[in-house]
Give the backbone structure.
Amino acid sequence: MPDVTVTRRLRFNAAHRVHNPALSDAENTALFGKCNHPNWHGHNYVLEVSVTGPIDPVSGYVVDLGRVRDVVEREVIDQVDHRNLNLDVPFLAGANPTSENIVVAMWGVIAPAIAPARLSRLRLWETENNYVEYDGR
Amino acid sequence: MPDVTVTRRLRFNAAHRVHNPALSDAENTALFGKCNHPNWHGHNYVLEVSVTGPIDPVSGYVVDLGRVRDVVEREVIDQVDHRNLNLDVPFLAGANPTSENIVVAMWGVIAPAIAPARLSRLRLWETENNYVEYDGR
Amino acid sequence: MPDVTVTRRLRFNAAHRVHNPALSDAENTALFGKCNHPNWHGHNYVLEVSVTGPIDPVSGYVVDLGRVRDVVEREVIDQVDHRNLNLDVPFLAGANPTSENIVVAMWGVIAPAIAPARLSRLRLWETENNYVEYDGR
Amino acid sequence: MPDVTVTRRLRFNAAHRVHNPALSDAENTALFGKCNHPNWHGHNYVLEVSVTGPIDPVSGYVVDLGRVRDVVEREVIDQVDHRNLNLDVPFLAGANPTSENIVVAMWGVIAPAIAPARLSRLRLWETENNYVEYDGR
Amino acid sequence: MPDVTVTRRLRFNAAHRVHNPALSDAENTALFGKCNHPNWHGHNYVLEVSVTGPIDPVSGYVVDLGRVRDVVEREVIDQVDHRNLNLDVPFLAGANPTSENIVVAMWGVIAPAIAPARLSRLRLWETENNYVEYDGR
Amino acid sequence: MPDVTVTRRLRFNAAHRVHNPALSDAENTALFGKCNHPNWHGHNYVLEVSVTGPIDPVSGYVVDLGRVRDVVEREVIDQVDHRNLNLDVPFLAGANPTSENIVVAMWGVIAPAIAPARLSRLRLWETENNYVEYDGR
């Protein structure tokens, strides 16, 4: 039975600043420039959630994408949408919310929540000109 | 000689319903919800066809994408465009036309038709928010 | 107080065929070609709903787009999404579901439902390559 | 000499909350819901700036879009990009930064700055699903 | 009978340089910068062709968009696609191929060719960040 | 420390013709059709540059995408934007500028320029309907 990858795209709008609390303000400014602006800025993030596996012969699905959407909305989107990624999100507490750190943290939440379906890739778009990808390895 | 992957994007508009004829109507409704609606619904599908191989030193191409387009249009797009995926398509006869089953069936048609060029990936978008990918394994 | 136009984009997936029941099958085929295919085809429609008016000084809104979304989802999207536009939709009963006829019929439903907000334009995309616009005149 | 409209698309990423300081917190929450979240949220805004006029017979341009871009970047984008629209932007001071109020305020800045070129329309996308338009009237 | 506007989107890939042959090379460089590069550059242009009129009660169409596509492909796209806009296109002979001049020249070709259908707007995208619009007035 | 892939999207507008100077004009025409047009055509190319590696614990970045953008703009985009890919570009000298040959040549420029960051993928879009990908192997 061949493996197919299915992907669901979801969106959220959040505020953040790129800031490492272990560094001084001057070091943060030098390292992150305008992305460190103290009064925050924000993005329309797009998250693509991919699951890989064999096709279930009864449903014809690898996984019910409606269930994937429901789980990711409850576990991730509802935590970050219209929120501040530095201040409001339990699974990002203490983290510097770069796209890299966000995507790895989201993996830690989504992978167990959708098991036994196998999460195979997360792609997170911060703007139409940059995105990050993580496959759990 | 390095391997490069080249991709052509094609579109078709089709009706379908997600329906397993081996199940009862009640089971189909429970499993597929509104996607099982008996009077059909439809999509603007987008198919991305990828071929991988070394660059031909004479043409500078991995493969002539014009030939790929012609073959895929004749073998696949002309069979599904402005058609019903449950009723009208020989290579989907008897299948439940989920995106997963469609993409695997299209692989079976396209891979031999474009040989000796090597089909390496099919990506099928059902809506702007979900897509499936298959690499033949 | 200046007038501003605000627009909400919504999507639905539906089956249809372009068919005038007052004509013979041969006439329908001659007039509409593959769009008249008897087993239906379908589209991912995108509907843009625009309201024009002065900005409310208390809310800063012309209209609450969340309310526009709720009304259009209840009155229009829920009637057409995952449905057959020729068979299933009360406000299209007896109509030939071309994009032109659909957009005028939707105007007749949406304009009174969102009053006193003033509907100023509907734009309906049938595919990424064609769309229609109607302003009620 | 016919009139042509030319448009330049620019982007900025900003934080904001929809909040009327003349109302109580309870009233703001009731009116604006999650868009009133106190720790802010944010967007990738897209601004389309349109100028209308006759074609200059020497340049073949209605206006040099490079100059439009420079003026709008200096007068608007540099003020809002990676900023907080409630706290940081002189031309929005005291305003509730709904898209409607933002677009009217931007008109007040851009129209004189690009004169004698005639600003004819601003379109501001807050997300891929909603946008506002203003033509100065 | 209400008026509806229907639009067809078409694409072409062309080379050009922005250059006024009545000016010196130095004047052209000063005025047009890198867009005047003597060895040309190019774009994936997108042309949106809009027709406005009442809905034909027999067809349900304002105009058959398939006929619009055929006429515009024959009269315009076949003249400009994979061509040089300064050297190869009869309807642009002697013109400085700015987007403004191109769109007005295309109007002169398309409006009579699709009559009695009434051309109401041409929108020409030169890049994803700039476009021009012309309505024949 | 897990590996994450980060991607920056950049754009350039260039003229080219697909032409192998080792072949006769008749052979070039037979092989490449309208893409061989002697007066050139052009495209709005989009280049996606991907870097893979562990997340730096101080910055939270795999690599500063601002630095990636600066390097790729200086080494590649400034060489090709508003230029002729057959005539003007040192790193393409003598090459037939198919997308495949362009992407491999760009790899040769970008990979050393962004070291020690590890270039992992280049994706080059020639039109909205075709793109090539190369991972250096």
